[in-house]
Every structure is written in structure tokens, then in C-alpha cells.
Write a structure and sequence with these properties.
Layout (H helix, E strand, L loop, with lengths): L3 E4 L13 E3 L6 E9 L8 E2 L2 H16 L4 E3 L13 E11 L2 E8 L3 H11 L4 E9 L1 E4 L2 E4 L4 E8 L8 E2 L2 E2 L2 E2 L7 H12 L9
Parallel strand pairs: 4-10
Antiparallel strand pairs: 1-8, 2-3, 3-7, 5-6, 6-7, 8-11, 8-12, 9-10, 13-14
């Protein structure tokens, strides 16, 4: 089988996981943490990633984290290349918690990062979803991701297919209110207008 771009972006009805919110003391940038990926389960795309596969890829990803090259974008592009002008965040730490790959994410002060920051501050529940290259093989009712899989990055999305990979900030010890997604367009419009560019955004 030939390798193809694997993106986990189908919607799935799950309860949002809780995230904590704080600030990087050196940069002042917003930090959030939560589930990046889950091994040994069928995700919303019907795909299955083994723990050995994720463990191997996280071992390789460690170098990118250490070099501050572990960037991601706002929304999944149809590309295996990370577009620097669309970068919104940086993975700064990761660790295992059972079959979950947990991670700490620093929101960067880029145009896309500012959109993520304002969405989080407004209580919008965001998700994080992996992007990688690999091939698939049918095994029963799941598509198993094969050993040629190569993790590229994690992107912020509205509907991740990995169970539990939602982001929700906590403020002053109280869970923030999750707003309806109809607020997203107005928030983006307000951010762009503050930068001197006001596009027409249709509801």
C-alpha cells in the first residue's frame, strides 16, 4: 500500500476533557494541556493506532520538541508540509498516561495563534488532532495504521476524531462556559478587523 496523508478530523460525540490554563513565565504565552492521541482504540475515522507505533513516533518527535520545531497549524491543511504563516502553536512537553499521549501546548502570538487564544478565552471548546503520512490495512471493522506511519504534527481543529482530544480551559478553579460554535465567526471577524482587514464572514 502507498503512503497517504492521514488526518483525524471527523466529528465524534464525546464529552470534552478538562484542560488547565496558565502562562509560560518566559514568553508570557498561553499554555494549555490535554490528550494529544490515544492508542489501542478505534477513532472517529475507523482507524487504529497501536501503542508501539505511537511510542516509536513520540520517541522521534522528542527531538522536534527539544529544538522547538514541534509546530502545528490552525485547522488541518491538505499537505504534509507545515506552513509557517499558518502556525498557531508549539508542543512543549508530552508524556504517557495509560494509553493516552498527553501534551502541553504553547499558543504562539501569530495571527493563527491569536485566533486560537481568543477562541479559548471565549470558552469555545477546541480539539487537537494529529497529521501524518502512512498506509492503512483493513482488519475486521477497523483500518490499522501501518508501521510506515510518520507523525508530522498536531493541529487545532473543531472536531477531532481521537476520543477525548478536546481542549477546554479552566479559569480561577471554575470550569469555563462552553459557548455555541456560532460565536466563532464573530470572534475571528473581530480579530481580523483589529488588524485592519475586515473580510465578509457569512454565518
Amino acid at each position: 500500500m502507498s503512503k497517504k496523508l492521514l488526518m483525524e478530523t471527523n466529528p465524534i460525540n464525546i464529552s470534552p476533557s478538562r484542560l488547565t490554563e496558565n502562562v509560560n513565565k518566559e514568553s508570557g504565552n498561553l499554555l494549555v494541556e490535554g490528550i494529544l492521541a490515544t492508542a489501542e482504540v478505534k477513532n472517529g475515522n475507523g482507524r487504529y493506532y497501536s501503542k508501539d507505533l505511537w511510542n516509536r513516533e513520540m520517541g522521534k518527535y522528542k527531538e522536534l520538541v527539544e529544538q522547538k520545531r514541534s509546530m502545528g497549524e490552525l485547522d488541518h491543511p491538505d499537505s504534509s508540509i507545515i506552513n509557517l504563516k499558518n502556525v498557531s502553536h508549539l508542543i512543549t512537553e508530552y508524556w504517557w498516561d495509560g494509553d493516552n499521549v498527553m501534551g502541553k501546548i504553547e499558543i504562539l502570538p501569530t495571527p493563527s495563534g491569536n485566533i486560537v487564544k481568543e477562541l479559548i478565552k471565549s470558552g469555545v471548546t477546541l480539539g487537537v488532532s494529529s497529521r501524518g503520512m502512512g498506509s492503512l490495512e483493513q482488519n475486521g471493522n477497523v483500518m490499522e495504521v501501518q508501521d510506515d506511519f510518520e507523525l508530522l504534527c498536531w493541529d487545532f481543529v473543531s472536531t477531532p476524531s481521537n476520543p477525548g482530544s478536546y481542549m477546554q480551559s479552566l479559569k480561577e478553579g471554575k470550569e469555563s462556559i462552553t459557548y455555541d460554535y456560532s460565536k466563532v465567526n464573530s470572534i475571528i471577524h473581530e480579530i481580523l478587523c483589529s488588524k485592519g482587514s475586515c473580510p465578509i464572514i457569512h454565518d
